[in-house]
Queue: 2 jobs
Job 1
Amino acid sequence: MNQNFDEKCKSRGLSITVQRQQVYETLMEDKSHPTVDAVYMAVRKAIPTISRATVYRTLETLADEGLIQRVLHPGSSARYDGNPAPHAHIVCKVCGKTEDCMDSDLNPMSYPSRSSTGFSITECEITYRGVCPECQRKAQA
Amino acid sequence: MNQNFDEKCKSRGLSITVQRQQVYETLMEDKSHPTVDAVYMAVRKAIPTISRATVYRTLETLADEGLIQRVLHPGSSARYDGNPAPHAHIVCKVCGKTEDCMDSDLNPMSYPSRSSTGFSITECEITYRGVCPECQRKAQA
DNA sequence: GTCCAATATGAAATCTTTATAAATTTTTTC
DNA sequence: GAAAAAATTTATAAAGATTTCATATTGGAC
């Protein structure tokens, strides 16, 4: 199916399963930062018997392995992003829509030094919150 | 109790209630970025009959008014920070401990321009994820 | 192909959070 | 201050999100 993905699993000691392949492929095709449930619904079209628990576990596993990334969403359900490269996100606090934020004027992400925190840092997430154009329009009406 | 807090409520048109006062005071005293449940447990010592729903609602209200701030926590429960000023956080992905991240070498937060996104942005959140010193030690053992 | 380890399933359990209606408290008005 | 109006709290339930668990199935090494 996706040779690249299979190799990445293999190199990490993960078994290659149809469920993992399908979840990954679905996320690569859906750029909307879908919720777990949205991924579950999409994957069911290909694997009708897949369990919701499997989708949860698979997404978590792939994120732990750095193949995808988890995107936070205030007070609501988790979302995932098929692009594992660090980049900022912008979330509408009315409808929850989540988009990449690629403004080149933004300061580049920097990491705190190990010495100052004692943490070993592996991920950085920047989230802007606001109101998307559509919800602004609806609010005016 | 806290004159300052009472005034802030008044200026925002919020009623002053013992529940709000106590939730706010609890959060000011607890610098650990507690979960809603932790706040609920602490406030119960002062107001044993307080409802969990009230704590949820109160924290949300105070955050909406900018008196406190909500801190995201990947896939888990929300946490709150009594300091409403924007600052980065660092979260341990093993135990969930959340700390302020005040490294002065970090790039300052910048906001994307309105024109590039169409969003009206009100909040920015920076979260680093990694493993805290304690959990690193435990993992070695 | 056989076997063992890893993974998936399905249902239930466990959080976490929100909604609702009735009761209470605050604020406003006089 | 007392009464009326508005806002808030309570308690319960419901909804939603996520995890757990025992069992069944599958993948990969041999």
Job 2
Amino acid sequence: MIMDVLLRRKLKEMGMTDFQISVLDATSNIPAGQVRTYKEIAIEIGHPNACRAVGTALRKNPFPVTIPCHRVIKSSGEPGKYSGKSGTRKIKLLQMEGVKISNGIVNQKRSSPAE
DNA sequence: CAGGTGACATGAG
DNA sequence: ACTCATGCCACCT
């Protein structure tokens, strides 16, 4: 995992709280070619209904390269918003990562016709 | 301290 | 299936 105690402390110095850091940590733990929903992240950090707070944390994303925020999507499979714009950019990045995308929507474990 | 905002989720119409 | 309204948590003014 990329998140070290030193980095966490640094993030705190930058104004990030433990909650925010936990979100960034969980996000950095997302394997390539995989996507995770805000809800999942919220649950991972121990706040199942803090989906909004998760988004707020990623929004303050201090290290866009260290934290693959583009791998975090909505529960509906839609990219949601990214950098204050449409998630088009995120979708393309995910595609490049190897994530299966359908009609601009991430192939979550829904009723996949064939997998 | 109180009010408003936001990269969301869920339920009801 | 789509849109509107409410709830949630954390952060900022």
